[in-house]
């Protein structure tokens, strides 16, 4: 296989394919829309705090899957990255435009392409010895289930606000702190050199900036949940 879109094309012969960006849009619409509609049905409101955290957790759960894929496929990512001329088998084209069948979405190899492309701006993601690799794989395994727990718990209230706030504080503090460390290592090691600022701002700054802004919002909500031991902030 010399082209990573080959599995999708073969799958398309017996089913249908959509570009990866369409699948991601459907993911966000589902993982934000369903919790918000459920929240409104149960509590009668569309709460801005709840909406903001649903948006972030929908992204974070998806990224956790990508981060697990990073760990599983690091050998392939390293091989792709260190063969820039494509002399050996490697993915072609942008992952966001690649056609994918539903079964392809379960492939860690597909999501490994995200890191292969990001490694062009930060080669630490094609190096299993780097901080970026270790912290992201660790985040994927350690925050996937807590994120699901918090997402459902904001509406269902199956645990006390104190317990939910403590679980959320663990998630959001870890995300905020690790992102700060990531930006430090990126700047300290001067990994921005050789890249135009017009690309670094959206690709590195924008994508990682989400993990500063929304975890800060999440920490505020969790502190309120712990101190007040009430769901008023989310349910009114």
Structural class: mainly alpha
Strand content: under 5%
What number of structural domains do the residues give? 1
Distance between the termini: 54 Å
Work out the number of β strands.
2
Structure description:
The chain is mostly helical and 236 residues long. Helices cover 70% and strands 2% of the residues. The chain has helices at residues 6-12, 20-43, 48-72, 74-81, 108-118, 131-156, 161-188, 197-228, 232-235, and strands at 18-19, 99-100. The termini are far apart.
Features:
mainly alpha, 236 residues, two-stranded antiparallel ribbon, 2 strands
Short account of what is shown:
By secondary structure, this protein is mostly helical. It has nine helices and two strands, in the order αβαααβααααα. The termini are far apart.
What is the topology?
Blueprint: H1 6-12, E1 18-19, H2 20-43, H3 48-72, H4 74-81, E2 99-100, H5 108-118, H6 131-156, H7 161-188, H8 197-228, H9 232-235
Antiparallel strand pairs: 1-2
Helix pairs in contact: 2-3, 2-6, 3-5, 3-6, 3-8, 4-5, 6-7, 7-8
């Amino acid at each position: 296989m010399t082209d990573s879109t080959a599995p999708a094309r073969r799958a398309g012969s017996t089913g249908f394919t959509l570009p990866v960006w369409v699948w991601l849009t459907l993911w966000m619409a589902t993982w934000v829309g369903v919790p918000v509609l459920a929240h409104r049905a149960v509590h009668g409101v569309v709460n801005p705090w709840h909406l903001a955290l649903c948006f972030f957790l929908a992204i974070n759960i998806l990224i956790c899957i990508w981060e697990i894929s990073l760990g599983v496929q690091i050998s392939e990512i390293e091989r792709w990255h260190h063969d820039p001329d494509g002399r050996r088998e490697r993915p072609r084209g942008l992952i966001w435009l690649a056609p994918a069948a539903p079964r392809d979405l379960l492939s860690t190899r597909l999501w490994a392409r995200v890191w292969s492309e990001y490694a062009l701006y930060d080669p630490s993601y094609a190096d299993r010895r780097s901080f970026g690799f270790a912290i992201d794989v660790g985040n994927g395994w350690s925050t996937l289930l807590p994120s699901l727990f918090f997402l459902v718990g904001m509406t269902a209230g199956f645990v006390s606000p104190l317990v939910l706030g403590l679980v959320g504080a663990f998630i959001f503090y870890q995300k905020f702190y690790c992102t700060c460390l990531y930006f430090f290592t990126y700047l300290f090691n001067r990994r921005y050199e050789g890249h135009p600022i017009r690309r670094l701002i959206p690709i590195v700054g924008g994508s990682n900036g989400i993990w500063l802004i929304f975890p800060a919002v999440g920490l505020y909500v969790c502190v309120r949940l712990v101190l007040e031991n009430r769901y008023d902030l989310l349910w009114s």
